[in-house]
């Protein structure tokens, strides 16, 4: 049992690292190829680094990001915990290092297309998806993401909204560095990014709550445990029309598992009655830990 538990934790850790790396790569691509060449300071350590780089061009953006994140790492460890802090250090250092390498290997001196609005949208969409993936692994890419996580933990503000609040402060600072026009574009990007992250996280964390009424409830219960590796709740209910007592199974599963369960249930009981609801917040054993 202990060996199986360790194996599950190892697989979970590998999965987390893979997803964090994918998220990091997307964040870097969005920032470096689309936002940075247009001086779009759309918040975060990167946005603040772009503003500082404007006044101190001898300091590369990647180096400035490392300095900013170094201060915020301490805050992450103290306010949120070691697990979040460690993964955030890994992600933020990775993002800063990738940008630093790209600045040396593929220096970009001008925007790719010259269409600032087009590049803003592409940059925000790509980096926003990456940030949502990293957030979903209980990590962040550093910068104001850490502050957003703190707001989420202590004030229960949605992560996207927290990012929006923090990043708006940086876009206001960008007015001094780049003027009103670029800052307004950046502010638009910050707003889109905030809502995009919340929408993506909601979609990623959506589960299906399935209620099944069937005479073959015992077979279905075993299928859920052995094939879907999930628990379930079974209770007795009386039909309002038939007045007969029947067993009801309630299970919460991932979206991708529902078609399999649905197919199996109807393969053994054509008369089964199934209702399905979308669930966005689940806490407890087998899901996210309950946090205060």
UniProtKB/TrEMBL annotation:
Residues 230-284 form the DUF2179 domain. InterPro entries: DUF2179, N-reg_PII/ATP_PRibTrfase_C, UPF0750_membrane, YitT. It is found in: Cell membrane. Its main location: membrane. Pfam families: DUF2179, YitT_membrane. It is a multi-pass membrane protein. The keyword GTP-binding does not apply. PANTHER family: UPF0750 MEMBRANE PROTEIN YITE, UPF0750 MEMBRANE PROTEIN YITT-RELATED. This is Uncharacterized membrane-anchored protein YitT, contains DUF161 and DUF2179 domains. It comes from Clostridium frigidicarnis.
């Amino acid at each position: 049992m202990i060996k199986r538990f360790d194996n599950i934790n190892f697989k979970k850790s590998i999965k987390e690292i893979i997803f964090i790396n994918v998220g990091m790569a997307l964040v870097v691509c969005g920032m470096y190829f689309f936002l940075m060449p247009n001086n779009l300071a759309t918040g975060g350590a990167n946005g603040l680094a772009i503003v500082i780089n404007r006044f101190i061009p001898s300091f590369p953006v990647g180096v400035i990001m490392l300095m900013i994140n170094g201060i915020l790492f301490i805050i992450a460890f103290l306010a949120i915990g070691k697990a979040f802090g460690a993964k955030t250090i890994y992600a933020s250092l990775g993002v800063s290092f990738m940008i630093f390498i790209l600045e040396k290997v593929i220096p970009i001196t001008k925007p790719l297309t010259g269409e600032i609005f087009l590049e803003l949208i592409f940059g925000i969409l790509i980096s926003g998806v990456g940030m949502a993936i990293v957030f979903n692994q209980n990590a962040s890419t550093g910068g104001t993401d850490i502050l957003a996580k703190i707001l989420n933990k202590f004030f229960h503000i949605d992560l996207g909204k927290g990012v929006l609040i923090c990043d708006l402060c940086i876009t206001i600072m960008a007015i001094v560095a780049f003027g009103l026009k670029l800052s307004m574009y950046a502010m638009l990007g910050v707003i889109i990014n905030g809502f995009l992250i919340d929408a993506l996280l909601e979609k990623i964390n959506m589960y299906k709550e399935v209620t099944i009424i069937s005479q073959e409830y015992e077979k279905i219960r075993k299928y859920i445990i052995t094939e879907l590796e999930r628990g379930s709740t079974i209770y007795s209910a009386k039909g309002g029309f038939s007045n007969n007592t029947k067993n009801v199974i309630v299970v919460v599963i991932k979206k991708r598992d529902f078609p399999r369960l649905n197919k199996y249930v109807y393969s053994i009981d054509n008369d089964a009655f199934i209702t399905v609801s979308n669930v966005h917040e689940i806490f407890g054993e087998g899901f996210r830990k309950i946090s205060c």
